[in-house]
Amino acid sequence: MTPGFPRPGAGENGGGFAGRTHRWDDWGLAELLAAKRATGHTVSLVVPARNEAATVGAVVSRVRKALMETVSLLDEIVVIDSDSVDQTFTVAESAGAVVHRSCDIRPDLGSRPGKGEAMWKSLFVTRGDVLVFMDADLLDWDTHFVPGLLGPLLTAPGIALVKGFYERPFGGTAQQGGRVTELVARPLIALHFPELAGLAQPLAGEWAIRRELFESLPVPTGYAVELAALVDTARSLGTGAIAQVHLGLRGHRHQSLQDLGAMATQVMAAAVARATGKPPADAVLLRQDEIADGGLVEHERTVPLSERPPARSVR
Predict the structure, then answer these.
(1) From the CA atom positions of the chain, what is the Rg in Å?
(2) In the prediction, which pLDDT does 8 show?
């Protein structure tokens, strides 16, 4: 059990999340600011980004104006640049974020590609007692995402991790976003982790966690970080330590099926590792075929599957 968090009673550990499912407007800013002062918590917003120069500036500037300059809900906004080859670093810095290249953080630990790596590295360059994560590729969203995620953490001491969920349009159709969630994550949860079945969007990129907990968890370096955090939190603290918040509408840049295939591979590897107790391989070779020019074209990519140990163990 992770120290510092009360374990929920057995009656709260079922698959449902009744009583721990909220809307973003269940808390007003004044209430959250009062709770933040009362607890003495500091809050860091972390934005992992890779080649997101087109959108990261708006994410940073809008949140900074609304939640740092107008009110003091956030104490810092930190962008972790994960091997970008565009102007992500410069744009984010100009918008008012503190920006670090992932490869420059704790160089003694080496550097690996992936979103999870950037989030794990953020633990060494942020100071917040509570960490809020937001993706850098958001298109349709609003700044209420942040206070919505903070609501349970600032007002309920037993909550240690909060997941966002939202309406995710795709191809002009509502509720059709989140393809890896529906085709991979949700079936895996049904088969191996049914206690988490009540979570609407387990792979959502907008979520928040207490630093003490995140520092105690192993972190997949790729896209499986969200699912792994949920499974590991449920096992150490019980599902009663997890809440979810409806954040409204979320639009973002959609990835190709080939890229989603790599993402799905990482999610499956992390789930299998936790279901079997066997650590994943460092990488796997993924073959993806397409029909082009009347013939079959074979593509192979190496998909990294490695995990970082709990940050607490390498401090």
Answers:
(1) 19
(2) 37
The CATH class given to the 10-314 domain equals alpha beta
Note the pLDDT tens digit of each residue in 158-214: 999 999 999 866 555 455 447 889 999 999 999 999 999 999 999 999 999 999 999
β-strand pairing of 219-220 with 43-49:
unpaired
Q: What percent of the chain has pLDDT over 70?
A: 90
Q: From 89, 131, 91, select the one nearest 225 (Cα to Cα).
A: 131
Q: Crossing angle, helix 225-237 and helix 115-122, to 10 degrees?
A: 50
Q: Compute CA distances 134 → 22, 41, 81, 142, whole Å.
A: 18, 19, 13, 11
Give residues with Cβ within 8 angstroms of 71, minimum separation 6.
29, 33
Amino acid identity of 105? I
- Strand ranges (DSSP E) for the chain? 21-23, 43-49, 76-81, 98-101, 130-133, 138-140, 161-167, 207-210, 219-220, 242-249, 251-252, 283-292, 295-304, 307-308
User: What pLDDT, on the 0 to 100 scale, is given for residue 2?
Assistant: 38
Domain ranges of the chain: 10-314
Residues 290, 292: Cα–Cα separation, whole Å: 6
Structure token pair of residue 116: 């999870």
Mean pLDDT of 236-250: 94
Q: Is the pTM of this model over 0.85?
A: yes
pLDDT for residue 62 is more than 90: yes
What do you get for the CA distance between the two ends of the chain, in Å?
A: 20
Q: Rounded distance, CA 247 to CA 145, Å?
A: 6
- Give the number of other CB atoms < 10 A from CB of residue 14: 14
